[in-house]
Amino acid sequence: MGTLATLAAGCFWSVELIFQRAPGVLRTAVGYTGGHKASPTYREVCSGNTGHAEAVQLEYDPSVISYDQILDIFWHKHDPTQVNRQGNDVGTQYRSAIFYHSEEQRVKAQASLEKEQARLGKKIATEITAASTFYPAEEYHQQYLEKGGQCSSKGCTDKIRCYG
User: Fold this and answer.
1) What is the structure's pLDDT at 4?
2) Known active-site residue 11
3) If we measure between CA atoms, which residue out of 127, 110, 107, 114 comes closest to residue 33?
4) CB-CB contact of 130 with 100 (8 Å)
5) Beta-sheet strands, E only, within the chain
6) Given pLDDT bands bounded at 50, 70 and 90, which one contains residue 86?
7) Do 23 and 33 form a contact (C-beta atoms < 8 A)?
8) Taking the chain, what is the end-to-end CA distance rounded to the nearest angstrom?
9) Range scoring the smallest mean pLDDT among 23-32, 33-42, 87-96
10) Which residue out of 11, 151, 156, 162 is catalytically annotated?
């Protein structure tokens, strides 16, 4: 068994695919976390009334990929300066967030946020908060872009195309 990381960076489909491609990531699942409703549905999360973010929970092998490397992928995958949105996707469910599973992850997440904020020269909107219950999304959302024919092979660098 590997180590867990849970991250939110907009629409979970493309975030999942980029981590599926990362060597050392053993498993990915898309779902909902950070809200107040138990077992929410996609429709409920999209209503903005559950408080949940669309997130990816991944299991990784720290002897192959470090948490710092996972955070680097996270920062470069999205615009962490946007509040409650990524591109055309708008709503609290699309917020940027790091849900830490240990004190070590919290410390590393905070340090990486400060480093990224200095690099960008802009205030980062990403929340850093303790991981809470992760509710896997409906099955049709799991590995959605891979099912749609996009490359999920380790090391693949093909452009990620989102569609819905």
Assistant:
1) 98
2) yes
3) 127
4) yes
5) 3-9, 25-33, 53-60, 85-86, 89-90, 96-100, 127-130, 135-136
6) confident
7) no
8) 32
9) 87-96
10) 11
